[in-house]
Amino acid sequence: MLLSTSARLISRRLIQSGTRRTASTSNAFRCNEENLRNKALPYYASATAAALVAVGAIQHNNSQNATATEGLSVQEAVNAVEDKFAVYWPRNIIILFGPPGAGKGSQAPKIVDIMGIPQLSTGDMLRAAVAAQSEVGKQAAAVMKAGGLVSDEIVVGIIRDRIKEADCRHGFILDGFPRTIVQAKALDKMLTEEGACVTNVVEFNVPDKVLEERITGRWIHKKSGRSYHVKYAPPKSMKKSWKGEIDTASMIDDVTGEPLIQRPDDTAAALKKRLAGYHNDTEDVLDRYKPKGVVKNINANQGMEDVWKDIQVSLLR
Ligand code: AMP
C-alpha cells in the first residue's frame, strides 16, 4: 500500500517535471529494424516503472544492505532511475499525422498528460512568431493566412532548435511536422545523428467534407489554445440571432471570460488550399514511414472519447 502510494506520487512528479538534469542520448541506442519492431515503452509506463524500480531498490537495500542506492533518498533514487531511462532507453518520437481539423491539436495534450513528453506544434510555434513579429513571423504571416506552406528551411530550423531542449530528452510529440518529404528527411537525419528514430506515426483519418464544417465552425481561446465549435462544442455564452446567425460578441471562453477568435486561415478558401497541400505534399510522408511498421491508422471521424481510446491503443507496443 505504502509502496503503491509512493510510486503513484513519484510517477506523477516524474510526469509533471519534464525538465531537470539533461543526459545525452547520443549513442544511447541505435535505431535499427530491431528497435523499430520493439518500440519504445510509452513514457507513462517508463515513469511508473522508474518510480517502482526506485522505491523497490530502496526497500531492497534496506533489507539487504546493498549499495546501488544506499544512502539515497527516494527522490535521489528516482532521479537516478530517471536518468538511466534518459540515457539507455529509446526516446518516444511520435508524429501526429492528419489533415487540418482532424483533431491532432485537441488530442495531443492528452498524450502529453499520459506520457510526460512535450507536444511540438509547428503551427503554434509559427503563430507565436507571427504574434511576436519576429523575422520568422514576418516571413511566415502571409503564406499562413493564405493556407500555404511555410518554407522547409524555416520549419526545420525551428524543430532542430526545439528538440535540443531538456524536456525533449525522453521524446516528443510532433503535431503538424513533417509536412513534406524534405522535412521528413531532415527530421530522420537529425534523429539518426542522435541514434534515435520515429517510433510512432498516428494517422488521423477524416473525410474532407467533414473537415470543412469542423474548420469553419472553429473558435479558439488564443492564450490557452482551448478550442470550441459553434455546433459541436459551443461556449456556454454563445447566442444566435432569430435568423440563426452567431452573435460574435457572445463567443467568450468558458474558463477566463476572454473573447474567442477565429484563426485567419480557418476560412473555406484557405482550407481548400491547406487540403490540397495535404493531399499533394504531406500524404507522401506516410509512404516513408509505412515500411518501418510505425504507422497506425485511426478513425478520427467519431466522438472525441472514442478517438482518444483508439490513440491509446495505437501507442501501446
Ligand atoms: P496548423 O496549426 O498545423 O494547421 O498550421 C497552420 C499553418 O502553419 C499551416 O497552414 C502552414 O502555413 C504553417 N505550418 C505549420 N506547420 C508547417 C510545416 N511543417 N511546414 C510548413 N508550414 C507549416
Show unreliable segments: 1-30, 33-45
Shape: globular
Bound molecules: adenosine monophosphate
Distance between the termini: 28 Å
Please tally the helical runs, counting DSSP H or I stretches of 4 or more residues: 12
Backbone CA Rg: 22 Å
Instruction: Give the helices and strands as they follow along the chain.
Output: HHHHEHEHHHEHEHEEHEH
What would you call the structural class? Answer: alpha/beta
Note the beta-strand portion.
5-15%
Q: What's the rounded overall pLDDT mean?
A: 83
Task: List the main descriptive attributes of the protein structure presented here.
317 residues; 50% helix; 12 helices; two-stranded antiparallel sheet; five-stranded parallel sheet; binds adenosine monophosphate; single chain; alpha/beta; disordered N terminus
Task: Outline the secondary-structure elements.
Elements: H1 2-17, H2 33-37, H3 43-64, H4 74-88, E1 92-97, H5 104-115, E2 119-121, H6 122-131, H7 135-145, H8 152-162, E3 171-175, H9 181-193, E4 200-205, H10 208-216, E5 218-220, E6 227-229, H11 268-289, E7 295-299, H12 304-315
Parallel strand pairs: 1-3, 1-4, 2-3, 4-7
Antiparallel strand pairs: 5-6
Helix pairs in contact: 1-3, 3-4, 6-7, 8-9
The chain binds adenosine monophosphate.
